[in-house]
Design a protein that fits this description.
The chain is an alpha/beta fold. It has helices at about 20-25, 30-55, 70-95, 110-125, 140-155, 165-170, 220-230; strands spanning about 15, 55-65, 100-105, 130-140, 185, 205-210. It has a single domain (about 15-140, about 180-230), classed as Decaprenyl diphosphate synthase-like (Undecaprenyl pyrophosphate synthetase). The two termini are about 35 Å apart. Bound molecules: 3-methylbut-3-enyl trihydrogen diphosphate (IPE) (2 copies) and magnesium ion.
Amino acid sequence: MGDISMQQTLPRHVAIIMDGNGRWAKKNKLRVALGHRKGVETLREIIRESSDLGIEALTLYAFSTENWKRDPQEVGALMDLLLEFFTSEIDELDEKNVCILILGDVEAMPEKQKQALYNAMSRTGKNTGLKLNIAINYGGRAEIARAARLIAQDVADGKIRAEEIDEKLVASYLYTRDLPDVDLMIRTSGEMRLSNFLLYQCAYAEFDFPEVLWPDFTLAEYHKALNAFGKRERRFGGR
Ligand code: IPE
Ligand code: IPE
Ligand code: MG
């Protein structure tokens, strides 16, 4: 099964849009909630593998600011799964030295989920292993608008001068402030769009769009994407 060759360049920062749970449920004649539940199994494996491979940062898109538009039943099922995930996985993740960061508007989440998310961050915040970033109630444009608001406030308070605002400073006001730029962006299920994910951070990311639905995304598929990344020629605008 397409193993990772150890000499190759691993991306420092992998981002994944975990898409296709709904279609997987439909294909298997199951309720959509079961598609999401199966998706969580994939997520567990990909986190474990990323940690074992020594990838520096893994950022996963779990729930967008636009996903509130879905049927309340589906949103409820996603919220339940989220709570379940953070309750059942936190011990193992902490043991594996994983450092969890939530990207997105945590304050606006329902109370129980909010507590679980803050707890996960405070409990693992000092860990030095895989940086696991989970985007929940996240939107890329909202993130940039928030950064602009915070910068404007710091200028008004005299903490920084307007002339000091450059690309690096803007990046330092994003949720991802201490993370390297995204090297590899993977979106499963064949869709080829960003859906408001990491707009600023993907400026020079390499993209991979495997056809498989997220619940069917295996370690072999992950290795394939990592190997393909190792063969890409990245130019960053140079010769
Ligand atoms: C992605 O799967 C998971 C979330 C958005 C939470 P979808 O639910 O979007 O799956 P499809 O796109 O309908 O197949
Ligand atoms: C993006 O997928 C969000 C997540 C995977 C969490 P969507 O399924 O919500 O995106 P669109 O609606 O197809 O663009
Ligand atoms: Mg989708």
